[in-house]
């Protein structure tokens, strides 16, 4: 297995992609032709993106093309935001089966159908031990529907990816799969055989206050924490925070939900939380609306986010990954980074990709800036925001 990644910018997509093609071909060498090409193109290239599959097919006969448009792109561990650029990451994958799939909302199996319905839709079975890269149009697809279905049909399989970005209108995003360009639905690839896909999800928050248990809730409405109205608890917590943290609460307050029902108070670690937005407050009753369905008995903790917190969380998650990986080093990776990170959060380019390289090594790293990031927390796949989600590739 061998990976290569490149990035190029310029006013003409054909020229920029051609530059990437020559770079990755030279890096792989003549004896390692790519079997998978993952390409991300700036959304402001517009209709030029129709040329992407043709160019890659002509240069790399038989390659499977996967990708989408983005507000920013990542290649060779370099990030380019809000400029015309294209990034290409390719893999020479002997012994790996790459099964492409495309899904639209109307084709999703109902919750009553068996896992075989998903196998027929995607062209793989549990016996194949597939691992999934998933790219989605944010306007036309119910993200949670397909992710919960994938978890149901393929429990334990890695699922990672992101939502196309850069366009504010339905039909404005491009999804690349094979020799086609789509503007709705989901495209992806199921990888099986001589490959392992590992995931790292950094949600970029730190907890404040105490770990609490939900004692009353309705759907996504948080009504009591250890018998106390959540808004009353939050007001008391605010008074106890430092002035710096109080300043963050106004626009950067979230709720972390421990998704593993087996966890006890002493067992919860920062990476065990699913971070969700606060979406409304009922001042009269002291309730808080959360961007996630809740269950009584769940452990929760309020969180805040800023640049230093985000960097520290990414460092912590990558360190945890490296400790668990041991001698099994990855040879290539994809990063799906939120539009709200990058220069917007850190005030400079390349923060997350440089931190990844410092901690994991100088391996080919590509990706894009997403409208939402896909990755697992406690064994369940979720659609995230403000996250960097990684797929790391290695041999078994």
Task: Outline the structure in words.
The protein is α+β, with helices and mostly antiparallel strands. Helices cover 24% and strands 37% of the residues. The protein has 9 helices and 25 strands. The chain has a 6-stranded mixed sheet, with helices on one face. It has a 6-stranded mixed sheet with strand order 5-4-22-21-25-13, with helices on one face. Strands 7-12-8-9-23-24 form a 6-stranded mixed sheet, covered by helices on one side. It starts with a strand and ends with a strand.
Secondary structure layout:
Blueprint lengths: L1 E8 L3 H16 L7 E7 L9 H8 L4 E7 L1 E4 L2 E4 L3 E8 L3 E8 L11 H8 L8 E6 L6 H11 L5 E5 L11 E3 L2 E3 L3 E8 L2 E7 L3 E2 L4 E7 L2 E5 L4 H11 L2 H7 L3 E6 L14 E10 L4 E4 L8 E6 L2 H19 L6 E7 L3 H5 L4 H10 L4 E6 L2 E5 L2 E5 L3 E7 L2
Parallel strand pairs: 2-3, 8-9, 21-22
Antiparallel strand pairs: 1-6, 2-6, 3-10, 4-5, 4-22, 7-12, 8-12, 9-23, 10-11, 13-25, 14-20, 15-16, 15-20, 16-19, 17-18, 17-20, 18-19, 21-25, 23-24
